[in-house]
Amino acid sequence: MFLTGFNSPITSALYLEKLLKYHKLIQAFSRTNRIINITKPFGNIVCYQTTKKTVDEAILLFSNSTNTDQILMKPFDYYELEFIKLVNKLKKDYNCAYDVGNDGDEVKIKEFIFLFKEIVKILLKLETFIEFDINKSKYNFSENEYNEFKSRYLSFSDEKIKKEKLSVLADVDFELELIYSNKINVHYILELLKKIDLNNIKRKEKQIKEIKKGLQESTDPVLKYKSQLINSFIERVIPTLKNTADLEVLYEQFCDKKYEQQIIKISKKYNIDKLDINEIISEYRFTNQLPSNLIREKINQQYTEKIAINNNVSKIKAKNEVKKELELNIINLINEFES
Q1: Cβ pair 73, 40 in contact under 8 A
Q2: What CA–CA distance (Å, rounded) separates 322 from 96?
Q3: How many CB atoms lie within 10 A of CB 120?
Q4: What kind of architecture, by CATH, is found in domain 76-178?
Q5: For site-directed labelling of 301, which of 19, 51, 150, 262 has its Cα 20 to 30 A away?
Q6: Residue 279 dihedral angles phi and psi, to the nearest 5°
Q7: Is the pTM of the predicted complex or chain greater than 0.85?
């Protein structure tokens, strides 16, 4: 294990297969505890051989604490119960997100802000556990509901900036880092995209800036594949739109056009018919696996011979190289355009 000198603040999960003790164990654990900001107060560690007793002994030896609970996260059940309590209180106070602040009572709005912040903090912890799924019925709180309350929360942050210092919200820290780090995924970004205000130039610029920030900061692997596509839509299409444009429809049309262009590009490069490429993709959609035999069958013989001559390799090796490259192109295409 190469631990000394390894420093990666973004590392959030560590898998240990070796039996480690004392300083080596603590050194390994510390890889996940490099602080970036408020959104990463802990790391997730999976031990295959090291026991809890060994972990406790190492922590007690190298910390100033006599209680490991101050350093280790509590069990999943603890955070789940806290989450349920907070959500129940939220649902008791408000039937839906649109009920928050309707009467203009800033004291109640402030109470909502503090309550929702606590929910987000617990949610960040729960999402490190594989058993957590916010859409489970026992939570009585779907991801869509969460996003609606989050939008309301962010709207109060915008209002705070516009209002005078005498406002009750003037001293409230919204800790927006918590909100932006939580679930910045494809769904979230596309929802923001649909809400861009084409009638207000300043608001439109602010919304676009928020989307680009989300694309840049998100750790969602699916969104990473689609970020270039979304950025391209923002930069090339949105500036040309009129106030009455339907952004959702236009984005889908933009994606369809780009998808077709990529299919044509792959078809020309490898001298393979478009129908054959679509057949490979359809097979992948059905089985969730690349059809290796079908890909090998569709590879153009003349293109393979050309690669063999250019690279000075055998036809068999050239075909394997072409197959591997073609598979990678198809996977990238699927990741970028599939929902």
Answers
A1: no
A2: 54
A3: 20
A4: Up-down Bundle (1.20)
A5: 262
A6: -65, -40
A7: no
